[in-house]
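Example A, followed by Example B.
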Amino acid sequence: MSDEIMTTAEMHEAQAMPRARAAHADPCAECAEDHPLPDSLTRKPLDQKSPAEWAYERLILYIENFEQQLDNEHEIAMGFTGADAGVIRIEGIGYFDPDIVTFYGSDPTGTKTQLIQHVGQLNVMLRALPKMVADDAPRRIGFRLVEDLEKG
């Protein structure tokens, strides 16, 4: 418990602010939780966001952080835990209020794939897959997703 004195407004604001934390064996590991939330995510109060919107925004931060750690031979993909859905190369992500998150992409064979998931069932594993075409630059979606968030 803190001995810090807060006004009622400060107390409510502190309770509404999201908290995040991560610990790693490697102290140099970059984690999405280690970075402050971008202004685009704090403009709208947390209590005014649907579970789908809030999940979508945080997934974007995780995707961007993961991609920043990839070399030029790999692209981001996601595996879905607890299901036979397999792996999807991430080409898009969206949400539908109040509780649906959608992932767009392709499977490792190049087949177009879309997963629609309820936020209550959301379990995503980010993975690095070799690029589909060795000569092309890796496709990165994280920065595009962040740009979209910043547009509001």
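Example B, a separate protein, is given below in the same form.
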Amino acid sequence: MGYDKRFDGRRADQMREIEARVGVIPRADGSAYFRIGRTIAYAAVYGPRNLYPRFLQDPSKGILRCRYNMMPFSGSGERVRPGGNRRSKEISMVTENALMPVLNLDDFPNAVVDVFIELPQTDSGTRCAGICAASMALADAGISMRDLVTSVSVGKVGSSLLVDLTYDEEAYEDEPVSDVPVAILPRTGQISLLQMDGEIEKDELIRLLDMAKKACWGIYEVQKAALKERFNCVKAD
């Protein structure tokens, strides 16, 4: 029997509930909270500030550093070992690559912008939630950006093409599963992250990317609303 009904009852193209807030960490230069379903990401931005040691500096522009971390008891599956690991380093790198296309760091030579992403609770889609939170936090910090970055995971369970897979769907054992995290610049449609775990046909991938773009536009509206609320409150004060 195929996987034709999602565990949580959602439609194939329906995302989990989304919540976003900005300015949630008082001592950070910029910060954000992003929740999709039971996956929660906090992002804090510090900088631009001088980069040390000096041999890491770029005299032509500033650099971006991201640190992604899932807390040990954050969610489904096995307990996460504390401290750095190969997976967290890989996701930190792809997060930097996903965010860099929208940033202008030319005015900050020899400086660094640090982004710390912490996930206290997870149910899949963690790198996507982290990218969404980091994008809002960078905007909150006043870093020059030409767009926000939105991100969502799409995939295939059996023969079903789905948006925003849960952990139970990613771990489904009765049929093959493919997971495709995507990050998109909504105004241009540019893709800044595209990864895949599993196998999928070319025409299915094209359909999944179209589903991801539509989902990301919905996330974009939530991100913008959170930023507008934040800065309207600042003006009112």
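On Example B: The CA atoms of residues 52 and 136 lie 26 Å apart.
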